[in-house]
Write a structure and sequence with these properties.
This protein is α/β, with parallel strands linked by helices. It folds into two domains: 7-160, Pnp Oxidase, Chain A (Roll); 170-416, TIM Barrel. It is 30% helix and 26% strand. The strands form four sheets. An eight-stranded parallel β-barrel has the order 13-14-15-16-17-18-19-20, surrounded by five helices. Strand 19, helix 10 (356-365) and strand 20 form a beta-alpha-beta unit.
Length: 425
């Protein structure tokens, strides 16, 4: 009987179906072999079964049939070159397994040590499927070596997940009150500004001395935070009625902040009453990316309620070409958002290189929903109003009322008496 569709049309049609990318491997008496495949899927939870479909004409089919075992390593977004190599797209390569980390588990089939995930299988069934064989594998071992965005294949091209813009974002002001305190502004007028910010829907970071009894005009507790130097200060801040306690991770002796080893004590001191925010300094420095990801995982494991990534201030030196670049930020956040899991990941951006709003948009498309800003960018942090304007133009909702926020700008300008507070040198 004549085929209903020709092969070319069928291939073009299936190319429109996006899929993940995996490397199927096997090893045994006839040696080891591997190939890139997208025809892999789960089949059953009890017992745990997966299936792969293999062209009967290729060597991988012969070896899996002979060995009776195979493994599937799911590729991450940074495995494009490896995927191309195992797809036979680099003809000069003699050993496909070279220049990558492999190990063997239960069956002896190689698994990729830095895969997004892998399963190790024994062949349980083999069914004919046209010019392919459907190998059903019983999963005897499985792991998720790292949290990373997957590599995708669509329309004969490699790609990765592009997150849509969020429905809404939140903002917290981490600079205005602190800058006003440095200028020795009167407490009562400053309180009016904080009240206005609160009514606008913005959480405000207060200088430590102003945290006690922070109330709005109706006597309700303001949504405020305070940056603390240690567990005792965290306990005192929590007792004073703040809604959030923040701390900076100190990574070297003498650096401001809290050592990672002391984080559990701080969490215990503030337990149950406030949101605890762990802050990672200089988080957008490309040379620190592996360390930053380790810290995100550590703060999540410790039990922080939120994790903030801070962009370092421009010191006036020669910046790396990748410093603050949207490309680096995109790559960092793809992994950081995964590592944070369901914990809110905050981003504190600066506009020193004129890329603040570009990076904010990049972050939103990378899964970030929470930003730390300052009115008028008064401490060098991204300007609250500019970020909210960007969101409004992009159709992203913000739980901030424009009327009260305009009052905040007016009050801030009045308090400093000379327009905007100057940005730090």
């Amino acid at each position: 009987m004549r085929a209903a569709v020709d092969e070319s049309t069928f291939r073009q049609t299936l190319a429109r179906w996006p899929s993940g990318v995996a490397i199927v491997t096997t090893e045994g008496a006839l040696g080891r072999h591997g190939m890139t495949a997208s025809s892999f899927c789960s089949l059953s939870l009890d017992p745990p079964l997966v299936l792969v479909c293999m062209d009967r004409r290729i060597r991988s089919h012969q070896l899996i049939e002979e060995h009776g075992v195979f493994a599937v390593s799911v590729l991450g977004r940074d495995h494009i070159d490896l995927g191309r190599r195992f797809a036979g797209m680099e003809p000069g390569v003699k050993d496909r397994f070279e220049d990558a980390g492999w190990e063997t588990r239960v069956t002896g089939s190689p698994v990729l040590t830095d895969a997004a995930a892998w399963v190790d299988c024994k062949v349980r069934h083999a069914y004919p499927g046209g010019d392919h064989t459907i190998f059903v594998g019983e999963v005897v071992d499985a792991r998720v070596p790292r949290l990373v965005s997957p590599l995708l294949f669509h329309s004969r091209a490699w790609g990765q997940i592009a997150d849509p813009l969020p429905d809404a974002v939140t903002v917290a002001d981490v600079g205005s009150a602190v800058q006003l305190a440095l200028r020795a502004s009167p407490r009562r007028p400053t309180a009016r500004l904080l009240d206005a910010l609160s009514r606008a829907g913005v959480r405000v970071r207060l200088p430590a001395g102003q945290a006690v009894g922070a109330r709005d005009a109706e006597g309700c507790a303001l949504p405020v935070s305070v940056l603390v130097p240690g567990p005792d200060a965290a306990a005192a801040a929590a007792a004073s009625g703040v809604t959030a306690v923040e701390f900076t991770v100190a990574e070297r002796p003498g650096a401001p902040g809290i050592r990672l080893a002391d984080v559990p004590a701080l969490l215990s001191a503030a337990a149950g009453s406030v949101t605890v925010v762990g802050r990672i300094p200089d988080a957008l420095n490309p040379s620190r990316a592996p360390r930053v990801l380790d810290l995100v995982a550590a703060l999540r494991s410790a039990g922080c309620d939120e994790i903030a990534l801070e962009e370092a201030a421009d010191t006036g030196g020669e910046a790396s070409p990748d410093q603050s670049s949207p490309l680096h930020l995109r790559l960092l956040l793809q992994d950081a958002v995964q590592l944070a899991g369901g914990i809110p990941l905050r981003l504190c951006l600066r506009d020193d290189h004129g890329l603040g709003l570009v990076n904010a948009l990049t972050a939103m498309k990378s899964g970030v929903r929470h930003f730390d800003t300052a009115l008028a960018g008064c401490d060098g942090t991204l300007d609250t109003e500019r970020l909210l304007l960007l969101c409004s133009r992009m159709g992203v909702g913000v739980p901030v009322e424009s009327g009260p926020l305009a009052e905040c700008r007016t009050e801030l300008n009045r308090l400093v008496r000379r327009g905007r507070p100057r940005r730090p040198a």
